[in-house]
Design a protein that fits this description.
Blueprint (H helix, E strand, L loop, with lengths): L3 E2 L6 H12 L10 H11 L4 H15 L6 H8 L3 E2 L1 H14 L3
Parallel strand pairs: 1-2
Helix pairs in contact: 1-5, 2-3
């Protein structure tokens, strides 16, 4: 099954608050400055294309706030929306039910 979030559009701060609510505890958030990510990206480029690409994605998320309207995805592919809270609570229940 392919899960698509929505219908709410959440900021990264909203997501942190949601995780805190679902987990029932505070989460430590560490901010990474964009210029640090760009510098690291330049350093690792000759050594690891994968690390370079991961840092490029992190640079993008640090410098922009991109939200894809889920309604467009749903309309196009006939999917059902799941709220972020419902998704996280479902994952937590599944994890707690796993043996080990």
């Amino acid at each position: 099954m392919f899960e698509v979030g929505g219908p709410e559009e959440l900021s990264m701060r909203d997501v942190v608050a949601l995780y805190q609510s679902v987990l029932g505890r505070e989460i430590r958030v560490a901010a990474m400055l964009e210029f640090v990510l760009r510098t690291l990206r330049a350093i690792v480029k000759p050594f690891s294309e994968a690390a370079f690409n991961i840092l490029a994605i992190n640079c993008l998320t640090a410098s922009t706030s991109v939200v894809v309207p889920a309604v467009e995805v749903v309309d196009r592919f006939g999917m059902q929306l799941t709220t972020a809270e419902r998704f996280l609570r479902s994952k937590m229940q599944h994890r707690e039910a796993e043996p080990g």
